User: Fold this.
Amino acid sequence: MSDTPRIVVAGAGAIGCYVGGHLIAAGRNVTFLGRSRIAGDIAVHGLTLTDFIGDKTRLDHPRFKPDPACIAGADILPRNRTRRRADPNGASLVRERFRIAYVTQ
Assistant:
């Protein structure tokens, strides 16, 4: 893994965008993988992160791709645990196929 790992957030819905957005705000190299509709919305409106305390962070142009090919070369691939039941072996399959250093569970 390099000094600046490349992170791909697969399944970038509400939770993935929130977590990935905070990683970007902290200076990490993040690409979102998600549905074309969400990619289009974020391309037009950017990504705004808010919480119950009132903090607000705006990201104007985060990298958001609808093509799974963006996973290739990723160092870290966080996975949404809500999908784990549907695909219990998904992490190992992704790790093998794309030679990713670390897949979170």
Notes: The chain has one domain: 6-103. Helices lie at 14-25, 36-45, 90-98. The CA atoms of residues 43 and 61 lie 7 Å apart. The chain has a mean pLDDT of 78.
